[in-house]
């Protein structure tokens, strides 16, 4: 190696050893990354991973003048970054002397005296425990060779074991082996010098690693096979097509033998049913949403997510979360036009009009007050956000995948200021300000999450059980995205059921679900039949019919009196709504801890329910008017100007205009909705001697022209706003 002078080929310690014959150059990748006097000035395909050959030769000449403080030989290209420390060393020498090299940000290096250390509490036991990777004993000592998990009190590792684990798992799968935490764990390990490569896991990259899984099981295993041509007969697109178990895939049945109407219905073998029943994760077949009709043709598309009010499909279409049609995401979004009401409301009784209006007025007033408090709390959390920017490059044709990639990239930090750049395969779409792109991105992202396979239900949504999403840690990412959106100026979610919200803030063990939380039509019907049984004989008959389901749910018990049905219904609800989604819920909670959002939710549950469980308030002329402050320095007649402004907003609200209230808000602030955290800075209005109105999105300031006649004022407003937004959309 031209930098360290060693011939060792030890990829786990020194990185890949590369030889470039045409340049007469051999170098260890880690030696190059950690050298203090060189930077990546080229593209990834230039030189050595972006390090230009001329720069490498200059760095070799610079290092040739420096003596290593460890081996006393020249060529020490790495220096300690601690102030006033002048130690230099080779990378292999630094490893031997227990220096720490941080493979992140500026690739800093610390000598043995100034290296970062982990904090150990005085109360922590000083004994020994098993390393959760190699299972050998590791002593609880603050030494270089031992690392402690930042998220688990009793998780200790050998440094060497963690490094091998990181190289094998890669950035997407490297996490705490005890609690599965990823963000906090990776951050601490990077700080302590563990290199986490930006690549997929080694087991995912192995060629033909899953070749055996491509073999399709073709055999009917039910007790009584009805096919005259035998159990191995398979005729696609007919009732004799073999359907495999949706969980293990190693058992099968003819459609006719299990009374399945089509291959789109899911089927589970008896072995899997018993396993999931014991683990509390049994998922009944034919998953559909409650209180919604089937598609007209009876054949839902497997590659798209169901729209917000269409029935949720079976768990067999788990991958549809990633395959959602991007067309839905790229449409012009219009704010929700629903009346503000609890997301979990399913059935309402119609009171008298006067009483109803009075109740709604009180509810609106109460929710506005609650949202003001949420706004102040979120502003406290925003203090963590630094001016350092993190740019997300979002592909308009595949918003979810590009958003997921952006949130998972190593340089992403929720405490950095987020800038969003929309692009497609042909060119980049330019906007006036980064805030407009950011507002639009968070709005699209929240709509996607609401309609994704991670949630189920028609109105107030609960978490669903999606095994593919669980495997890919998408529940954690969804929670993280919602937390980041709230603090960085995104819209309030507004689609959580009250049961889901209570599980998050109070813990699932303290929540009692209701029938409206069940999104599966079949399960809901079963519960209703049990609940409304009017005699012991009819109850026992019902239990006999659904014996298989009750056994899988672990709720089957002897019934000797009609009153036993209440306890049975409660057990089924707890299993189906809470116990079944224990793993997704915990992962989702971990994601919501980002930036301290979950902690604030648990401290102020009442106020946060106003943005999680209720639809955002529909924009009105009064809402928009109160949102803006007329600048005190305006020497125009403020009464006349305010009258023109209020009159125009009322015309827009009544439909007597070519623009909408959302258009006005978008023209001024770059957002068509009011963020949960509010606008920063707060919107203002100035009346000036100008010909046409100007929307200053950097200051959230609307500059309005002085006019003598209202009609003249209105014409100028409509012409400017309509043409400006039309040009932006084009």
TrEMBL record:
Keyword field contains Transferase: yes
Broad class of where this protein is predominantly found: nucleus
PROSITE patterns: EPHD (PS51805)
Stretches for region Disordered: 293-318
Keyword presence, Metal-binding: yes
Entry GO terms, CC: nucleus
Highest taxon in the source lineage: Eukaryota
Domain PHD-type as annotated: residue spans: 1-115
InterPro entries named among the record's database cross-references: EPHD, HECT_dom, Hect_E3_ubiquitin_ligase, PHD-type_Zinc_Finger, PHD_PHF7/G2E3-like, PHF7/G2E3_ePHD, Znf_FYVE_PHD, Znf_PHD
Subcellular location: Nucleus
GO terms for MF: ligase activity; ubiquitin-protein transferase activity; zinc ion binding
UniProt protein name: G2E3 ligase
Organism: Emberiza fucata
Gene this chain is encoded by: G2e3_0
